């Protein structure tokens, strides 16, 4: 409860414009919550992933769509896993296509400050302005990724990348 009270104070005092220091504080406060979700033995893996999507979407104002895609290496495709946000028709993405498909091939984080500037972007919605995708590795293999869309231009920082890498490291423990 203290976490949400502090978050609301920060939001009110800065009208949803967070400084780098404040975002780092929010990410640090979220880490034990993510770990707690992962370690809950009464929740299925899919349920845990959905809860992580919910907490990220509900806590970070510019995380407007949060979801997971998982790799099928035989068919060279990504399939949609749990997510929170607007419905998407992109339930199956070929490796190499769009931001998510590129991450499946590159095995590297991809931050897109402005989706209109990307040639290989798959438009999900006209409201999406930016995207961040961070691969999920298990035993050195890219098994999927966390994908976040934002309705704000260029909101993602290195702190977002490091936090999402932490989230994926925790999720990797489920596999």
Question: Topology, pairings included?
Answer:
Blueprint (H helix, E strand, L loop, with lengths): L1 H13 L5 H20 L5 H15 L5 E8 L4 E8 L7 E3 L3 H9 L3 E3 L17 E9 L2 E10 L7 H15 L3
Antiparallel strand pairs: 1-2, 1-6, 2-3, 4-5, 5-6
Helix pairs in contact: 2-3, 2-5
Task: Give a quick rundown of the structure.
The protein has 175 residues and is of the alpha+beta class. The protein has a single domain (2-172), classed as 2-Layer Sandwich (Beta-Lactamase).
Percent of residues in helices comes to 40-55%
List low-confidence stretches: 7-16
Rounded mean pLDDT is 90
CATH topology name = Beta-Lactamase
Question: What is the C-level CATH assignment?
Answer: Alpha Beta
Which terms would index this structure?
single chain, 175 residues, alpha+beta, Beta-Lactamase, six-stranded antiparallel sheet, 5 helices, 41% helix
Overall description:
Helix 2 (20-39) runs antiparallel to helix 3 (45-59) and helix 2 (20-39) runs parallel beside helix 5 (158-172). This protein has one domain: GAF domain (Beta-Lactamase, 2-Layer Sandwich). It has helices at 2-14, 20-39, 45-59, 98-106, 158-172, and strands at residues 65-72, 77-84, 92-94, 110-112, 130-138, 141-150. The chain is α+β, with helices and mostly antiparallel strands and 175 residues long. A hairpin with a 7-residue loop joins strand 2 and strand 3. Strands 3-2-1-6-5-4 form a six-stranded antiparallel β-sheet, with helices on both faces. It has five helices and six strands, in the order H-H-H-E-E-E-H-E-E-E-H. Helices cover 41% and strands 23% of the residues. It starts with a helix and ends with a helix.
């Amino acid at each position: 409860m203290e976490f949400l009270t502090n978050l609301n104070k920060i939001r009110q005092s800065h009208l949803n414009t967070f400084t780098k220091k404040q975002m780092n504080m929010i990410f640090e406060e979220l880490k034990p919550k993510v770990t707690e979700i992962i370690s809950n033995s009464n929740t299925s893996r899919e349920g845990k992933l959905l809860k992580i999507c919910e907490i990220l979407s509900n806590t970070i104002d510019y995380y407007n769509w949060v979801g997971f895609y998982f790799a099928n290496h035989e068919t060279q495709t990504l399939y949609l896993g749990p997510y929170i946000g607007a419905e998407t028709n992109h339930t199956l993405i070929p490796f190499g296509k769009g931001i998510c498909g590129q991450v499946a091939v590159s095995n590297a984080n991809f931050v897109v400050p402005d989706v209109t500037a990307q040639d290989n972007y798959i438009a999900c919605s006209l409201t999406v302005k930016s995207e961040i995708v961070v691969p999920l590795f298990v035993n050195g293999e890219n098994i999927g990724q966390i994908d976040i869309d934002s309705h704000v231009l260029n909101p993602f920082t290195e702190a977002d990348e490091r936090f999402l890498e932490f989230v994926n490291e925790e999720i990797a423990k489920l596999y």
